[in-house]
Design brief:
This protein is an alpha/beta fold and 294 residues long. The chain has one domain: 3-Layer(aba) Sandwich (Rossmann fold). 34% of the residues lie in helices and 17% in strands. The chain contains nine helices and nine strands. The chain has a nine-stranded mixed beta sheet with strand order 8-7-6-5-3-4-2-1-9, with helices on both faces. Helix 1 links the parallel strand 3 and strand 4. Helix 2 crosses helix 3, helix 4 runs antiparallel to helix 7 and helix 5 runs antiparallel to helix 6. The protein starts with a strand and ends with a strand. This is Alpha/beta hydrolase. It comes from Metapseudomonas boanensis. Pfam families: Abhydrolase_1. Keywords: Hydrolase. GO terms for molecular function: hydrolase activity.
Length: 294
């Protein structure tokens, strides 16, 4: 099914490309948050198992994908600003659930820490609160390539590290995408990496103690960069959390092989469709933000 596309204007400052996969029978809506260097296209496989059950919202950050032409991209956007954009989209689309992937989880957690009233549950995939040695090596090398706008090496780095378990066809598409971005996208990612490296984890971890919704953390068995063991440290900060490890999967849990896709599907649907305690029910605010149809 082709999505309804629109440009949502936020604070008269940012214009965000959105895709709405509607399901006439669905009563609930989920929004997906991209990882670094990604666009809405990265969730093609995820939409396949979510859209039969929910309305699904995808979006590109102002500096990326189909949002780029609508913004001047002369200033870097912080993770805090990305969290604010996400909160506005949650209100605009009246979102019930949130799912984030990889480094998109930083802005997602910053947003959840503000306890948006609409969100009933959240899923965080391929992320952990710990920058382990493997991740630090990946980020440190990435900083050099991003600062130099070394397109080819950025593509190889992604495929040789977090993308090492991707099928060869995906690796070719991945390299083509990561090596053909605009200059400002590499510099924006360089800014984000430096921000994350300098960010006190308390900014997006300790504040989760205020979150009163169920959260599911999903990681791949063989992901050494955001390992399942490291992800379990979230249990120290989140009151209501569950953990799932996808067998024989690396960082890209639902695109590396069919079994990983099925396991991720089962984990997410089992978690999202389970009833929520009525004690967690919240009033549902109404907001009105301008949308410009594409």
């Amino acid at each position: 099914m082709r999505p309804e596309t629109a440009i949502v204007e936020i604070h008269s400052q940012y214009k965000v490309h959105t895709e709405f996969y509607g399901n006439p029978e669905a009563k609930q809506t989920i929004i997906l948050v991209n990882g670094s260097l990604s666009t809405t296209a990265s969730f093609a496989q995820t939409v396949k198992y979510l859209q039969p059950h929910f309305n699904v919202v995808l979006f590109d950050e102002p500096y990326a994908g189909q949002s780029k032409p609508h913004n001047d991209n002369t200033r870097f956007i912080s993770k805090e600003t990305e969290a604010d954009i996400l909160l506005h989209l949650i209100e605009h689309f009246r979102v019930d659930y949130l799912m984030s992937f990889s480094w998109g989880s930083v802005s997602a957690l910053l947003a959840l820490a503000q306890c948006p009233a609409r969100i009933k549950k959240a899923v965080i995939t391929s992320f952990s609160p710990i920058l382990n040695d493997a991740m630090m090596d990946y980020l440190t090398r990435g900083l050099d390539y991003l600062a130099a706008v070394d397109r080819d090496n950025v593509g190889h780095l992604v495929n040789d590290t977090i993308g090492k378990y991707l099928p060869s066809l995906y690796k070719r598409f991945n390299h083509k995408h990561c090596s053909s971005l605009d200059d400002h996208e590499y510099l924006q990612m360089h800014y984000h990496v430096r921000q994350v490296l300098n960010m006190d984890s308390r900014c997006y971890v300790d504040c989760l103690q205020n979150v009163d919704i169920p959260m599911l953390f999903v990681n791949g068995e063989h992901d050494e960069y955001t390992s399942a063991a490291d992800a379990r440290h979230f249990a120290k900060h989140v009151r209501d959390c569950e953990f799932v490890t996808i067998d024989n999967a690396g960082h890209f849990v639902d695109v590396e092989h069919k079994e990983g896709w099925l396991q991720t599907q089962q984990a997410l649907l089992g978690f999202l469709k389970a009833p929520v305690s009525s004690s967690l029910a919240r009033p549902q605010p109404v907001a009105d933000y301008q949308a410009i149809a594409v």
